[in-house]
Amino acid sequence: MSFIYDEAIDGLLQVVDRTELVTALRARAPELEILTEREDLRPFECDGLAAYRTMPLLVVLPSTIDEVGAVIQVAAARGVPLVTRGAGTGLSGGAMPLEKGILLVMAKFSRILSIDADAGIARVQPGVRNLAISQAAASYGLHYAPDPSSQIACTIGGNVAENAGGVHCLKYGLTVHNVLKVDILTIEGELLTLGSDALDSAGFDLLALFTGSEGMLGVIVEVAVKLLPKPSSVQVLMASFDDASKAGAAVAKIIGAGVIPGGLEMMDNLAIRAAEDFVHAGYPVDAQAILLCELDGVASDVEEDAERVASLLHEAGASELRVARDDIERHRFWAGRKNAFPAVGRISPDYYCMDGTIPRRELPRVLKEIAALSDEYELQVANVFHAGDGNMHPLILFDANRPGEMDRAEALGGRILELCVEVGGSITGEHGVGREKINQMCVQFKGEEIDYFHAIKAAFDPSGLLNPGKNIPTLARCAEFGAMHIHRGHLPFPELERF
Q1: Helix axes 299-315, 244-256, angle to 10 degrees
Q2: Cα angle for residues 167, 172, 178 (degrees, 5° grid)
Q3: Average pLDDT, the chain
Q4: Planar angle of CA 304, 309, 315, nearest 5 degrees
């Protein structure tokens, strides 16, 4: 597939003597765990974009900041690229390694350092699992709001790198809205603190710039996140529709009425049936679409909003409306949605998970056009949405063992992302660009804008050693893809052109 171009990058990197590199790492950090055997490296050759694999030159698993600094300095001195990895749950190829590079795995940085319940702040290492933060804060009546579907496994460092979202981010924001401070090591090995424990800090907002930078600007070694009180009352409504476009229109009605749910999720019939067979969530398998709407806050407000939302859903054409009777049923409703991806994996040998964002008003149109594209490419698409904020996750079903199906899946995915841009949206909402969407970056951004992206990259990483070949395309690549002309005929930073 065209977005995987290890060979092109690999051919431009210098040959590295692995034995000499290991010797240098041992000299600087004697206790550092280093993996070099093929069978030890194999588990790290991909992230959640599992169809594409590259064996790293070696893997290091540091357990202290000094060890991370030693790895960075040894790599920088030898011009060896460095890819940082959390739990490997990412879905855009952002943590895929290079054959001539070091894979820096932060799994051992797994401690919750402190919880300040009065200030509502948790200090954690980057390898702490997303869900573990809320579990640790629960005894204080607090929780960490962003909740990706992979929250049982994904790490907070990876969440910051990708600016992860989740089903409750409509009301509570993405990772960038819930992180107060990060400590990072630069490519020079310098320790920097971006942000502060306060709600704001002086100068440029480098914390927001760094969040979502996909490991291209520095290595995260500590994160301070915002903790919120757990809501005292929660209700979940499940509405069924005989037409997916009606469900899309219902989303706009709810938000337009001034109601901001804790979560507002949509699934189409294919996703409904897959999830019901897998989780037995109580979903209506004959519905063409369902909406899950969670309302939270004080009991009186929740009751009032639930009545308004129920009325709006009926007006939008809901054929059935159910309210979760208790916490057990509420968790079951959400379990079906959060397990939609693995559920679809049970009905297809392979699937390709997209991640585009569109204006809510465009949901009905985009759903119709995805259906038309599905017919054109002769591949089924199961649609799962963070509908409230327009973040779509079309799951393209295919069989990689059938000649041409993988290429058709990629082409269909590209068309869906370009449709998102066409209607005023973005090619990613939370999964990041990585390698998966690098061609579509050429569609979304002008040459001048990509110039500025490269300028920011060069300011932090002038040699281009941190996660090269990800996120930002070269203008030459965009010209090859056919999406733009090369701006002024060359890149503004020639040292990055090789990537």
Answers
A1: 140
A2: 110
A3: 92
A4: 135
Domains along the chain with CATH numbers: 6-105 (3.30.43.10), 112-229 (3.30.465.10), 233-341 (3.30.70.2190), 348-422 (3.30.70.2740), 445-496 (no CATH)
Q: Between helices 363-377 and 405-422, what is the axis angle to 10°?
A: 160
**Model-level pTM?**
0.92
For residue 342, CA distances in Å to 115, 150, 188, 351, 435 come to 33, 10, 40, 10, 22
Task: Give just the sign of the alpha carbon dihedral 251, 356, 163, 205.
Answer: negative
For residue 253, the number of C-alpha atoms closer than 13 Å in the C-beta half-sphere is 20
Q: Which of 434, 473, 469, 439 is nearest to 94 (CA)?
A: 434
Degrees, nearest 5: CA angle 457-176-125: 85
pLDDT at 115: 98
List, for residues 20-56, the tens digit of each pLDDT value.
999 999 999 999 999 999 999 999 999 998 877 899 9
Six-digit token string for 338: 């959060």
Q: Could you tell me which of 351, 335, 325, 310 has the C-alpha nearest to residue 234?
A: 325
Element containing residue 61 per DSSP (H, E): strand 58-61
